[in-house]
Amino acid sequence: MALSIFDDKSKLPDYKDLTDVLGENHILWNNIKDFVLQNYPDAKEEWNYSGKNYGWGFRLKDKKRVIVYLTPCSGFFKFAMVYGGKATNDALTGNISKEIKDIISSAKVYAEGRGFRIDIKNDKFIEDIKKLIIIKLAN
């Protein structure tokens, strides 16, 4: 099974597909997307098919990097980012919940940075996610 609920390469997900699978959590998806666009109006929105093991994912990008990744699942979605060393340090020393700091600090480090995912099933982490976005945009 693919990471994303949308695993059919031939069908680009649309807004109705997204709201159908996310239910009420589509509001949180839009909240995160809108927050990125408010803080970085030049961000480009893009659906990307990453293969049968991952399916369709959504990302917001600047000219040279992805700011956030959002992966739709059944009733929730995954929020993901890749942080370099300075952003990781800023997050781990900043005013972010211990639960999120634990997710970041335990994430595997790759050449392009430390990639981490957070399941968004309710609004519990939304304020932390906004802080993470601000950190990403500052670094």
Main beta sheet strand tally, sense and closure: 6 strands, antiparallel
CATH topology title: Aspartate Aminotransferase, domain 1
Alpha plus pi helix count: 5
Q: H/E order of the elements?
A: HHEEEEHHEEH
**Sheet with most strands: strand arrangement:** 1-2-3-4-6-5
- Spatial shape: globular
State the low-pLDDT regions, or none. Answer: none
Question: Which CATH-level-2 architecture?
Answer: Alpha-Beta Complex
Kindly give the count of domains.
1
Strand content: 25-35%
Cα end-to-end separation: 35 Å
Q: Roughly how many Å is the radius of gyration?
A: 14 Å
Mean pLDDT: 95
Features of the shown structure:
single chain, alpha+beta, 139 residues, 5 helices
Question: Can you walk me through this structure?
Answer:
There is one protein chain. The protein has one domain: Aspartate Aminotransferase, domain 1 (Alpha-Beta Complex), CATH 3.90.1150. Helices cover 38% and strands 26% of the residues. It has a 6-stranded antiparallel sheet with strand order 1-2-3-4-6-5. By secondary structure, the protein is α+β, with helices and mostly antiparallel strands. Helix 2 packs parallel to helix 5. The protein has 5 helices and 6 strands.
What's the quick description here?
With 139 residues, this protein is an alpha+beta fold.
Could you give the topology of this structure?
Layout: H1 15-22, H2 26-39, E1 44-49, E2 56-61, E3 66-72, E4 77-83, H3 85-93, H4 98-106, E5 109-110, E6 113-120, H5 126-138
Antiparallel strand pairs: 1-2, 2-3, 3-4, 4-6, 5-6
